[in-house]
## 1
Amino acid sequence: MVRIRMKRTGSRNAACFHVVVMDQRSSRDGRAIEELGYYDPIRKEEKINVERAEYWIGVGAQVSETVADIIDRARTGKVLAERVRKPAMSKKAKAKAEAEAKAKAEAAAAAAAEAEAPAEEAQA
């Protein structure tokens, strides 16, 4: 089975990847059938030959998740550097935010109930 996946290049702590077509049984950095492009996460650059990727997908090659995202961005013309990622919150921070929101909602409900009580007394 042929896969379109990434081959690691670059030095330690400065990884760069080549998008390649290779047999799934071969090692990660082994011999590739064809090189389709590259992906540099540090400089946020990527380039891929979409026509050749389409050919290999049509022939039956499987695509890794990351390479599928790269191909998708190349098709739509999006640039990786312009992608905005929302900040991830830790579980502890999420729990704290939920507790604060719940307390705020309960306080608002209590204030609304107090505001309605004098209005009901005035009507009675």
## 2
Amino acid sequence: MTTLPNSAECRCLLPDGRTLTVTATRRPRANRADVKCALAGAPALCERMQEVVRLARHTEARFDSRDQVVLSMDIAPLPRQRDWELAAVLADRMVRGVYRAARAPVYAQGWSDAWHLGRMTGAMPTAAPPQPCTLVVGGEGGERLAHLGALSGHTDPAASVSSARAWFPLHSGGINDSLAWVEVSVHPLERHGADEEDTIAAPGLDPTEQLGLRQALAGARHFDGRGLGRWRSVVRFGENRFPGNSYELALVLADRLARGRECVPRGRLIASGCSAAWHAGRVDSVEGRAPKLALILAQALEGDRVLLPAAWRDGADAFAAALKARGASLAWIERIGMI
């Protein structure tokens, strides 16, 4: 099982220029309240923070109530400032192991009037946070987080546009190695008959990269049987530049999740693989097997689902056992749709 931290911090850049830090501390519950706020002289703020965190927990696939989480702030926001709400939610999730950022420190800005539905609103920070860091901003469009489910790759069931994420190991042999995400958003087409590749947009990629991505996605949908000519799609990546095509399996799986063609895992869906024949559903191996397995093992969380090429299976018994001990599941696959 994953070892949980005793405390976690998430920072927020307030509109007035100050930096607020939300600290979450975990301890045995011992018949106490599940969430406690330690904010001297601010009972209304305490009450709101408890409400935000408890409502946001309703969007989690699984909840362990054996621990108490104590939340505190190093400074008090102004009465009508709500930018800190997302920071409180993420700090609560980080200390319980529900969310793990790619790199520390973590900055978050956003709020919601419907935390129990996981829907986010927010604004960009007034100043840029120090780099490197993880920045999570609530709201619609671009790199923002529109729904809490996106943190683990899940869709918003109430949205007209279905979006899902999958993660893939991004290995370059440096300190920036991480699990990167790819997100596919699909919207039903009112008129059929358009060329499949023309309905797929991938902002930020150069023409050659877009062509490879479109061919992979169109080929995998062809294997689906009923996947062609039905969707207008937008593909986004958490990282703008990276080499190789090892993201392809994660791309295809995110697309299948968004279209309701894949079983939704409790946590994130993590994959690495490519194919020279996506139209046949085949999954081929990619380079960097050893460092990518190590990276996945280091960052996997309880509830994650890991899908890797069947060609990687030989000699990976220790990896499979260690991944299982962390509470994640693993499948070696030769074809999509047969997992």
